[in-house]
Each structure stands twice: as structure tokens, then as C-alpha cells.
Amino acid sequence: ISLLDTAAARVAVNLHAEHPELLILKRRVEGLQLDGQLLERRLLLGEVDIAAVDAVKADLREAEQALQEANARWQERAELAHRISNLRGELTMKDLDMEQRLQMQQE
What we know:
Order of helices and strands: HHH
Shape: rod-shaped
Radius of gyration: 25 Å
Strand content: under 5%
Largest sheet: none
Distance between the termini: 27 Å
């Protein structure tokens, strides 16, 4: 039971924390957005060619897609963890209810 309680506590903590994979992907998207803006300014000044801007835009689209997919996976896992937690709570209540019934029968 102690191991189950420890696991449940970890799940509860992880449900409220942002997954490291999501943080990394968000930072990548933000970095590529900034790079794209800077390259577009440099393009206007004639310092870079359009291929460099297009490459960053392509990388940005890929990073945004990866972020959306990772977020969907994380949401699905979080929902499953919530369901497991709720079921565990229901089982605990049923166990308590059963213990009370047994105590009443023994009296």
C-alpha cells in the first residue's frame, strides 16, 4: 500500500507540472520565431537571402507540429492519470465501506 501511495503522490505532482518535453519544444518554437523575425529584418536589409528565411519557417512549422503532437500526448496521459486517480479513490471508498460493514457484522 505504501508503494501505491508513493506512486499516486508522484502522479499527482506530475499532473500539475509541465512536462519537460513540452518546455523544450516551446523554447524551440520561441527561438525559431525570434530567428524568423530577425532573418526577415535582415532580408529587408539585403543581408540574407530568402532561402534562409524559408528554412527557418520550415523548421518552425515542424517544431510547432511536434509541440502540438507532444501536447496531445501529454493531455491524453494526464486524462488517463486522472481517471486512474478517480478509480483509486472509488476503490478506497469501497474498501472503507466494506470495512465498516465487517465491523458492524462483528459487533
